[in-house]
Amino acid sequence: MAIVGSIIKGLIDLRDKIVSEPNADEAQLEVLTGLLNKAKDTAFGKHYNFEEILEAEDIRVAYAERIPNFDYNKINEEWWYKMHEGETDVVWPGTPPYFALSSGTTGKTSKRIPVSNDMVEAIRTSGIKQVGALTNFDLPTDFFEKEIMMLGSSTDLQKEGDHEEGEISGISASKIPFWFKGYYKPGDEIAKIEDWDERVEMIAANAKTWDIGAISGIPSWIELMFKKVIEHHNVNNIHDIWPNFQVYTSGGVAFEPYEKSFNALLAHPVTVIDTYLASEGFMAYQQRPETHSMKLVLDNGIYFEFVPFKAEYVNEDGSITDNAPVVQIKDVKEEEDYILLISTVSGAWRYLIGDTIKFTDVSRHEIKITGRTKFFLNVVGSQLSVNKMNDAIQELEKKYDIEIPEFTLAAVRIDGEFHHSWYLGTEAKLNNEELAEALDESLKNANKNYKVARSKALKGVKVTTIPPNYFYEWNALNKKKGGQVKMERVMNEEKFGEWEEFISSL
Predict the structure, then answer these.
(1) DSSP label of 23
(2) How far is C-alpha 436 from the geometric centre of its chain's CA atoms?
(3) Model pTM greater than 0.70?
(4) DSSP 327-348
(5) Contact 320, 314 (CB under 8 A)
(6) Is 16 inside any structural domain?
(7) Domain enclosing residue 181, as ranges
(8) CA nearest 149: which of 201, 100, 199, 210?
(9) Taking every annotated instance into account, which residue ranges of this chain make up the domain GH3 C-terminal (predicted)?
(10) Which of 270, 285, 300 marks a domain boundary?
(11) Average pLDDT over residues 89-109
(12) What is the pLDDT of residues 364-412, one digit of tens each?
């Protein structure tokens, strides 16, 4: 069978050499022009006069000036709802065959994001680009013969009128090509099981019959699956079951907070490859092993705009102000945080996806996800972003040699004064006051705004340690287990009150 792996790797190598790298600025202009041309006769395109924008001297500037930015609530209330009432040609030609359900990290109610056939094809094409990049990681030829575990949401999509609904991972997995089915695990039958615990039980029962080389999924849910498989077979680590497991593809969240607890379930480190696949599209993937940054996909159905991530441009609810400036791909700077706006082949227009990113290499157009606009904690001017929180948690892990795969916090008022209240998910038994002091000191050193806030209006830091599985039970109560579900890192006071009631009930 080694000859098969050599052939597959050779074909990927050949494709990678034939496909040339596009000029980023030209590619993005071509994408935007294509979007406007295709959607100019939709209700949205006519309302905002796409034809006139296409005739402008600078299409990108005219587009940014004439089209407002939309978050989910705004575009859904003004436009997307019409598709559920049977209207066609609303924001994209025709009607979408799928709606991606995304509860994300906020709220119990699922967002319903249109997924066109053009988007399905764009995701497939970006997936092929990512597979092509695997040859940069110096993997052995026999890796390309191993099976691939894709642990997302159920592929048993729900029929709703003229379309189907499910999470984007389920939609993508339900559309895998026939030639890939022989490599794909857990297979169609198990992947259709809706109940997360039942699906994982079936995976554990069948695990020894598979030769898994690569796994993809959200880190927290992959960890739980690993633990169930290890427990079911009474082994020490996941490599006792899948000795050829070599590549883990993470996505949607930063892997760093999970790195220590994830590696504790392995016999040896594996190659970790980050991807950026959201309900709205496949936006970036890690192209080379020297970095965990991801290369933006600039020539495949998504037009990007970048808003500087500064407190004066962000509203309390995570939306952006009307006067927020927009930066094009040619003008971005390294190591500065930006809020993403995307326009896509599914009819998302200047859409605030909610993520913040920074460019780590402008020439390669490589990025890292740094957080969420709604998780930007700026009560009393602390200007605390998720990447700073993640860094501080990793410092605690190193200092005390512990694992903290999950955390959440809120700014709460105690006797009228603001404090940051943290809940850390860890099995370690440490003094909470000592942890609070270490966490506070780390954030002061890393963030001058936080340091100033702590000397004035932010009066204290409180830490409570709880078992990590409490976070997963909270997700199960508020949304569901598995799939694309992620834990909210920052809560408002009302939500945090519900969280504390839940924790006290356990």
Answers:
(1) P
(2) 28
(3) yes
(4) B-GGG--BT-EEEEEEEETTS-
(5) yes
(6) no
(7) 119-155+168-285
(8) 210
(9) 390-494
(10) 285
(11) 77
(12) 999 988 877 766 666 655 677 777 888 889 999 999 999 998 999 988 8
Longest C-alpha distance within the chain, in Å? 71
Do 194 and 141 meet the contact criterion of CB atoms below 8 Å apart?
Answer: no
Is the separation of the CB atoms in 393 and 406 below 8 Å? Answer: no
The answer for residues whose C-beta is within 8 angstroms of residue 28's C-beta and 6 or more apart is 60, 298, 303, 304, 328, 329
d(CA 390, CA 102): 23
SS3 398: helix
Helix axes 493-505, 469-478, angle to 10 degrees: 120
Closest CA to 245 of 235, 14, 253, 156: 235
Question: In Å, how far from its chain's centre is CA 389?
Answer: 17
Q: Integer distance in angstroms from the first to the last C-alpha of the chain?
A: 52
Instruction: Flag whether 353 is in a domain.
Output: no
Say which amino acid occupies 321.
T
Q: Does residue 49 carry a pLDDT above 90? A: yes
Task: Look at residues 261, 285, 309 and tell me which one is the last residue of a structural domain.
Answer: 285
The answer to whether position 215 is within a domain reads yes
From the list 487, 102, 492, the residue with the least C-alpha distance to 317 is 492
Is 266 found in the same domain as 143? yes
Has residue 334 been placed in a domain? Answer: no
In this structure, what token pair is assigned to residue 227? 């633990």
